[in-house]
Structures are given as C-alpha cells and as structure tokens.
Design goal:
PMP_oxidase-like, about 200 residues, 8-stranded antiparallel sheet, Split_barrel_FMN-bd, LAFE_0H17172g1_1, Pnp Oxidase, Chain A, alpha+beta, single chain
C-alpha cells in the first residue's frame, strides 16, 4: 500500500500531529453505521512492527492508524464483523483558536453603539464570523478508507503498538490499557482529500 506516499504534505502533517480522528464502522449484515471520536497514533512504514529476528519487506510500504477500543462497544463488534472502515481527519487547531477567541469576545462587555462609527466599520462579531468562514474554508479535510484488524493481545505486536499509542496519548491511558481493551491497527488503503474550493482528489 503506497497510497499515503503521494498524499499532500498537509494531510501527512495532520496524521502525524493531530489529536483525534473520526472513525466510522458498519455492522454486518444489518449495515448499521457507527462513528466515534478516537485517540490514535499514525505509524509510517519506518515504524511498522517487525517481529524480532525478521527483516521487514521494503516493498510493502504500509501505513497504519493505531487505535484502542473497549470490547463491549459497537465499533469493536463492527470491526470484527466488517473490517472495512473509514477515517475522517481535519485541522482542529484553527477551530480551537477561533473558539477561544469567540468565548473571549463573548465575555467582553459590549460598548454602547456609536452611530458615526457603525456606518463605516463592521461589528467585531461580523469580523469574527468572516474570519471563521475564511479560516475554516482554507483547510483541507481527508477521508481515508482502510482495513482494520484487532491484534492478538498476547502478541508482541499488540504490546508494541500499545506503547506507541500511549506515547502519543499519555493522557488517555484509561482508554488504551486494560483487560477489556483491544488494540486495533488500520491499514490505510485509499483517500479522498477536499480543499476550500471544493476540489476533490482521490488517492488509491
């Protein structure tokens, strides 16, 4: 799988630095969809688990998303029944900064309107809304399809990826470690990337 090798650098950067992804799964045979916000870590080919004593195949440049989920959840059962999943990722940083600014402004006392200035200057709220629209539209979003596999918890591979997941999400140990939690690796297979002009590119 070489699909992510040709993804835009912005998307690869998001995979490496973002905190969350949206994970979509679907049951079989009922085809009931489910979506969840997940902590994750991105595993490029250079960090893919290789069994001790073995040499990884350089041709197989596989890219993975690693997640952990409780076994008594819909997404876990869905993955067991139907390993085909989708992942949505986008830039949360801009939205977070704008949200903080919005809250800050909402707590600021509103001065009495001045007729002489209102005619020439848009309100602060209007400026914020304009900036919000421009900032949100300036970002890319990527939807990636993949194949999910629950890793045998007794296997060293599960321990390896659990450690990588904890390293990327040290504040989420309660969601990553435990007897009722499964480590899941998702091999990325294809992607659809959209930009602010509603242009869409496909990679598979």
């Amino acid at each position: 799988m070489s699909c992510p090798d040709i993804l835009p650098e912005h998307v690869l950067s998001l995979l490496k630095t973002s905190k969350y992804v949206h994970l979509a799964t679907c049951s079989k045979p009922e085809c009931i969809p489910s979506i969840a916000l997940m902590n994750y870590t991105y595993i490029p080919p250079s960090k893919v688990y290789v069994k001790e004593g073995e040499i990884g195949e350089p041709i197989e440049r596989k890219h993975y998303i690693i997640i952990a989920t409780q076994k008594d959840t819909a997404k876990y059962e869905n993955i067991r029944q139907n390993p085909q999943v989708s992942i949505l990722i986008h830039d949360w940083v801009t939205a977070k900064k704008l949200s903080l600014r919005k809250n800050s402004m909402s707590n600021t006392p509103t001065p009495e309107p001045q007729r002489s200035q209102d005619a020439d200057h848009p309100s602060r709220l209007l400026n914020l809304l304009q900036e919000l629209n421009q900032s949100e539209l300036s970002q890319m979003s990527a939807t990636m399809r993949g194949y999910a596999e629950c890793i045998d918890p007794s296997h060293e591979e599960a321990k390896y990826y659990e450690a990588e997941l904890l390293k990327a999400n040290p504040d989420a140990a309660v969601f990553i470690q435990g007897n009722n939690i499964a480590v899941v690796k998702i091999e990325l297979e294809s992607a659809k990337v959209s930009d602010r002009e509603n242009n869409t590119s496909f990679y598979d």
